[in-house]
Amino acid sequence: MTENTVINLKNVDVFQQKHLVLSNVNLNIDKGEFVFLIGQTGSGKSSLLKIIYGDLHIGNGDGQIAGFDLKKLGNKEVPFLRRKLGIVFQDFQLLTDRTVEKNLDFVLKATGWTDQNLISERIKDVLEKVGLRSKIKKMPHELSGGEQQRVVIARALLNNPEIILADEPTGNLDPDTSEEIVMLLKQISQSGTAVLMATHDYHIIRTFPSRIIKCESGVIHEDAQIV
Ligand SMILES: Nc1ncnc2c1ncn2[C@@H]1O[C@H](COP(=O)(O)OP(=O)(O)OP(=O)(O)O)[C@@H](O)[C@H]1O
């Protein structure tokens, strides 16, 4: 572990209730790294992400995530850990009853922002980053699937996260749009945010050669080869 480490898991056992999903997980991810997380359905990818964002408690082992010690993480600290993380899922989970701007405004206010000028600036900044500045007043249903996913990525960037966790972020998108989303996540990683992306999409993995971690038979392997 160095000063650049943002995810460090040591000898971690991942449980779903009493079921041991992954044992003895050792994983180190640095600032700015882009990492694919692969493995068959049920192999433990989402469970591993849940450990990282504090949704599952670690049993055995140790974990440091963006400066938080998972062993000492109580329910009260979880929201503070989540502010260091941007979470992007397959189903877009935008609030459907309000505009893009109001979706982002809601998250900033919920995470303690109060100055309306700073809020407006931040919303414009993140929309600029994802190429959607002109869609600020649109409702989610007026956007394509790819655009909605970009808004979700913009939302994940609001609090300048150290890590983006993406669980099948291209699962509902066509191949070209999927490539655009992954290109955007790659760009984000190049500006210093680590990205850990769970995917089943081998076309994407081949198109964007990156570090790969595979969940298989209850353990993780580093740098699995994709044929
Ligand atoms: N809430 C839960 N309670 C009990 N067992 C669970 C729960 N969630 C997942 N599991 C089990 O944990 C194992 C790992 O599931 P997980 O969702 O992490 O796999 P995954 O690799 O993300 O799969 P997928 O690619 O289908 O999303 C599976 O055997 C699953 O049945």
Question: Which terms summarize this structure?
Answer:
227 residues, alpha/beta, 2 domains, 33% helix, 26% strand, globular, binds adenosine-5'-triphosphate, Sigma_54_int_dom_ATP-bd_1
SSE inventory with pairings:
Blueprint: E1 5-16, E2 19-30, E3 34-38, H1 45-52, E4 62-65, E5 68-69, H2 78-83, E6 85-89, H3 100-110, H4 116-129, H5 145-157, E7 163-167, H6 175-190, E8 194-198, H7 202-207, E9 211-216, E10 219-222
Parallel strand pairs: 3-8, 3-9, 6-7, 7-8
Antiparallel strand pairs: 1-2, 1-4, 4-5, 9-10
Helix pairs in contact: 4-5, 5-6
CATH architecture of the largest domain: 3-Layer(aba) Sandwich
Strand count, sense and barrel status of the largest sheet are: 6 strands, mixed
Compute the number of strand runs.
Answer: 10
Number of domains: 2
InterPro entries: AAA+_ATPase (IPR003593), ABC_transporter-like_ATP-bd (IPR003439), ABC_transporter-like_CS (IPR017871), ABC_transpr_LolD-like (IPR015854), P-loop_NTPase (IPR027417), Sigma_54_int_dom_ATP-bd_1 (IPR025662)
GO molecular function: ATP binding; ATP hydrolysis activity; transmembrane transporter activity
Keywords: ATP-binding, Nucleotide-binding
Organism: Pedobacter hiemivivus
